[in-house]
Protein: Malic enzyme-like NAD(P)-binding protein
Organism: Faecalibacterium tardum
Amino acid sequence: MDYNKAALEMHETHKGKVGIVSKVEVATRDDLSTAYTPGVAEPCRKIKENPDDVYKYTFKGNMVAVVSNGTAVLGLGDIGPEAGLPVMEGKAVLFKEFGGVDAFPICIDAHDAASVIAACKAIAPTFGGINLEDIKSPECFEIEETLERELDIPVFHDDQHGTAIVVTAALINALRVVGKKMEDVHIVLNGPGAAGTAIIKMLMTAGAKDIVAVDQFGTLYKGCNSAEAHKNWLGEVTNPRQIKGGLKEALEGADVFIGVSRPGILTTELCKTMNKDAIVFAMANPTPEIMPDEAKAGGVRVMATGRSDFPNQVNNVLCFPGLFKGALSVRARDINNEMKLAAAYAIADLITDADRSEENIIPGAFDPRVAEAVANAVAKAARETGVARL
C-alpha cells in the first residue's frame, strides 16, 4: 500500500483528522438557554467561587493540549507549525482512540524556549494536561522543566519520556528473556539527544548502573567539555569506567545497545564484539541503526526497532494515552519518575512468562489491555507519591 498517497487522500477528503463534536443537543430554546446564555452563567459563577469546580463543570479534566512549534517533527526536522499540524492532529486521534482522552492540537509560532513557555502558561487554564511534541533539543529540556515547575497540571514531553518509558518496558522483558539484571548489564546508548537523555534517566531510575552515552564525537565522560550542557551532565553521571573513544570502544563486552541516532551506524562486526546474549534496540526511523537480520548474524539474541513490520516495535502509543488517562483520573499535579516507572512495568508485565520470547517482549500497539493497565498503575503511583488531588 502506498501510505503517502493514502494519507494525502485521507487528509484532503476530511480536511484533517479531528473536529469538535458537541456532548449536548441544542435543538430547542430550552437547550440553547441551558447550554449558553442565560443558563451558562451559573457554572461560571460556581467556578468563580471555587476555581477547582472548573473540573466539575467543563471538559478540563479530560482534555490535553498537544503543543508543538514544529521544530523537530518526526524525521522531517524544523518544518514549522503549519507543516507540523497533521502530526499533532494525529496525536490527538491516538489519545482518543487508545485512551479515551480528549486532546486538541495546538501548533504555535514560537521558536525560543521563553516564547513556548509563555504560550503554554497562557493556555494552561483550559487544559488538564500538556503534551509537548516535536520540539527540538536543547530547548525542549528548559521548556519542560520550567512548565513542570510552574504549572499545577501534568506536563509531559512525549519525545523524551514516552520513548523512555516504552524502551524501559521492552528492556525489562528483554533482560528477563536472557536472564540478566538491570543493575548488572553494560548499556551503550548512541544518540544522547532529547529521547536518548530521557532513556538514560529512566533506565537509571529502573536500576541501571553501567551506561555509556555516545554522540557523534565519541563517548561522554567526566570533563568531556561538550558544547551541550546536558551532555556534560551525562558525562558526570554515566560511564563509571570512564571509557573513551567511539562506539567501537563503548560496545566491547556490552550487553545492550540502544540507538536513537541514525541508520546504519551499528554493524554486524560491532555486534560480534558485544557480550553473549546481546540485546539491540535500533530505533532510528524509518531505517534503523542496523537491520534485524544483520544484528542476528552478529550474535544478537533480542532485537527491537521502531518499525511495525518487525517484531518488538517500540511505539509511544503504548504509553501516552494511558499515562495521561491515569494522571487525569486522579487530577495529578505532575508526572513524576515513580509514575513513569510504574507505566513501564505495567506495559512489561502484560507479557506473561509463558508468552515472553525473543520476538515478544512488548505488547502490540493495538493490544486493548495497555491503556487501562498503564492508567491504573500511574494513578496508583500518583496517589502513593502525593501528587494526586483525588
Remarks:
- The first strand starts at residue 63 and ends at 68.
- The two ends are 47 Å apart (CA to CA).
- The longest helix spans residues 158-178.
- Strands lie at 63-68, 102-107, 129-132, 155-157, 186-190, 210-215, 218-219, 256-259, 278-282, 300-305.
